């Protein structure tokens, strides 16, 4: 029988977060796996096994650690904040095994808790794949064809353009050029935004609301505190530049959130490579 170890994660210090992100190992050491994924609210949902049990987990580059669905928080607990500024009381653990295809991630650090709202809507919901696993492999995400690859070696980047990444506490950020000015945004593939999410209190919010046509929209989003019904302003802006890459007719939603972010759907027409050997992100041309 496999056992889960519970621990206290010192969440207040970035050195502690990066330490726990690095914890664990991958078996086999050399691997290359390709599998299909489904989507829910634009988010990637991967079939996995957690301690031998078939589950489905969301793929989220914006999550500092994995998050495991448990009936109640296990181990030492902390209040952890999410994208919508909601907080949830979560436990902490070392998960014995999370298997994606034939690749097994052992002894990875995670938060845990009862993710009400999510578990009711996603069958066999196992939680969220965060940087505890993401930073231990190279990933190639073909969103148009709903295929994902993970490998120990880097992928060919011929025909791809590199985007410069800034890392803070293990989380990837990118500079967006909007209306001639640059803004730092988190690459949050666990965000259900249709493009770019801008917090209501961000200087860019008022500027775009005054410049372009937006309309009010109500929808349900997934957050660390579970599902949540929100009201937002949605619109389209002509272009956003990331390095030398121009994205045209970009969807924007403005609502209460913790920071400027780009979600998976921002890259909906692209193939995205996350290369942890060079610590770079690459986008198909």
Automatic annotation (TrEMBL):
Superkingdom of the source species: Bacteria
GO biological process, alphabetically ordered: proteolysis
Coiled-coil segments: none
MF terms (GO), sorted A to Z: aspartic-type endopeptidase activity
Protein name, UniProt field: Aspartyl protease
UniProt source species: Flammeovirga aprica JL-4
């Amino acid at each position: 029988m496999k056992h889960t170890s519970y621990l206290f994660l010192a969440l207040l210090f970035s050195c502690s977060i990066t330490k726990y992100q690095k914890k664990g190992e991958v078996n086999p050491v050399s691997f290359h796996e390709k599998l299909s994924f489904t989507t829910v609210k634009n988010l990637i949902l991967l079939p996995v096994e957690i301690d031998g049990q078939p589950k489905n987990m969301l793929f989220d580059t914006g999550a500092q650690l994995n998050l495991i669905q448990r009936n109640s928080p296990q181990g030492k607990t902390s209040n952890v904040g999410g994208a919508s500024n909601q907080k949830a009381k979560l436990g902490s653990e070392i998960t014995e095994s999370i298997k994606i295809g034939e690749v097994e991630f052992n002894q990875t650090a995670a938060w845990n808790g009862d993710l009400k709202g999510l578990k009711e809507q996603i069958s066999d919901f196992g939680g969220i794949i965060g940087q505890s696993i993401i930073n231990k492999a190279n990933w190639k995400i073909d969103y148009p064809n709903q295929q994902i690859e993970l490998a120990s070696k880097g992928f060919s980047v011929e025909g791809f353009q590199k985007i410069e990444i800034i890392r803070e506490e293990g989380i990837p950020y990118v500079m967006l050029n909007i209306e001639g000015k640059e803004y730092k945004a988190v690459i949050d593939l666990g965000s259900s935004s249709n493009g770019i999410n801008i917090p209501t209190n961000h200087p860019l919010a008022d500027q775009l609301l005054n410049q372009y046509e937006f309309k009010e929209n109500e929808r349900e989003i997934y957050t660390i505190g579970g599902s949540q019904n929100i009201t937002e302003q949605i619109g389209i802006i002509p272009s956003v530049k990331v390095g030398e890459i121009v994205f045209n007719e970009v969807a924007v939603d403005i609502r209460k959130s913790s920071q400027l972010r780009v979600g998976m759907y921002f890259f909906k027409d692209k193939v995205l490579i996350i290369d942890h050997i060079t610590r770079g992100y690459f986008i198909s041309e």
